[in-house]
Amino acid sequence: MTTALRLIAPWRMIAGILLIAATLRASFTGLAPLLDQVSSQFSLSATQTGVLTTLPLFAFAFISPLAARVSRYFGPERSLVTALLIICTGILLRSSGNLSGLYLGTVLIGTGIAVGNVLLPGLIKRDFPGHIPRLTGAYSLTMGVAAGLGSAAMVPLAIHFGWQGALVCLMIFPILALAMWWDQVGKGNQGSTAQQPTYSTPRIWSNSLAWFITFFLGINSLIYYVVIGWLPMILMDAGYSEVQAGSLHGLMQLACAVPGLFIGMVISRMRDQRTIAAGVSLLCSFSLAGLWFFPSAASIWVCLFGFGSGATMILGLSFIGLKTSTAHEAASLSGMAQSVGYLLAAFGPPLAGNAHAFTHSWAWPVLGCAVLSVVMAIFGAVAGKAHQ
Predict the structure, then answer these.
(1) Which of 75, 270, 306, 367 could share a disulfide with 252, CB 3.0–4.6 Å?
(2) Between 240 and 56, whose confidence is greater?
(3) Cα 103 vs. chain centroid, distance in angstroms?
């Protein structure tokens, strides 16, 4: 291989990772600003709407433990390309205007995202072991920017093309990722990891540090998906217009991306993560309380929440790579954390929706998430200390 090719290959791999990261967030969160339109067209109840936002989380929970095994036999490159094709199929079905297609497409999107969520940390561990926090921050930044732009664009696109056309526009993210990754199929080490010992998987499930990381990420996921799913409706109930709510929804996700600019470098220089883990978690609690008690300053609160939640995710994902010794162990821990975490998170949106339907107020969902953020701070602090 020439020097030029050796220089191009890593940057092509990084570009591919970032494009997949954009797909993993935007293809899911783009639905939230249009939930009111979708639920009105199909006359969905609060419970049915909550199920729609929860289906991908159940897919994350049940597919995540399988993703590492699939990758071990077929290789991460081939597995990721397959996941992108599944996401494309899901986007088309979800936009079909048919109720069964809406739900089935949502499940397929969740399935593809689950595979990508699990394999990206292992891929970074395998190919860039000396740059785990920085690359984790970079793909988290990409996730947030893509999701923020996608959410902010959904309502304007729906005005011109309808909600179905707006959701189809999200296909741009997996198509670009496929264009970058298609020729990687067959070039990776497909099947080579099949010879790796499998004892690391059960050992991780019995490891106390792995459970602290799992609950740290899991509670953050629960809170994030409650907020990401219901924020537009919370804001509209507080007096904001649909366009304003969609813009604030996008602003929050852009704020989620901001920590990716620098927090990876900060983490890479820290041996003790207790302070930062607790601090970013408590920032989530503070911002959610502010959103409820002072909704007129929603732009401030959504930015603070986005920053705190984004930083928490980067920290938790960095733990996966930093606290394992091989790419397979990283994928196994990633599968465990995301399986348990997303199963926990899956109950958040429907419970929040039902609490609102029962009380006719968003107080319980918003303030309940503020309390859970304090619990998350405790798990994060313990996980940071256990790293020593």
Answers:
(1) 306
(2) 240
(3) 19
- Residue 68's pLDDT is what? 74
pLDDT at 194 over 70: no
Own/partner long-range contacts of 285-293 (Cβ < 8 Å, ≥24 apart): 285/370, 285/371, 285/373, 285/374, 285/377, 286/370, 288/223, 288/227, 288/366, 288/367, 288/369, 288/370, 288/373, 289/367, 289/370, 291/234, 291/366, 292/362, 292/363, 292/366, 292/367, 292/370
Contact 355, 365 (CB under 8 A): yes
Task: Quickly count: other Cβ atoms within 10 Å of residue 69's Cβ.
Answer: 16
First to last CA, the chain: 41
Q: Cβ distance 333 to 208 under 8 Å?
A: no
Joined tokens for residue 73: 């036999």
Give the DSSP letter of residue 187: T
Q: Extract the tokens encoding 88.
A: 């494309």
pLDDT-derived band at 49 (thresholds 50, 70, 90) equals: confident
Which residue's structure tokens are 């909550």?
Answer: 50
* CB-based contact 267:70 (threshold 8 Å): no
**Exposed, middle or buried by CB within 10 Å (0-12, 13-18, 19+), for 121?**
buried
CB of 223 closer than 8 Å to CB of 369: yes
Please state, in angstroms and rounded to a whole number, the distance separating the CA atoms of residues 256 and 307: 5
Give the pLDDT confidence of 261-283 residue by residue, as tens digits: 787 777 767 777 888 889 999 99
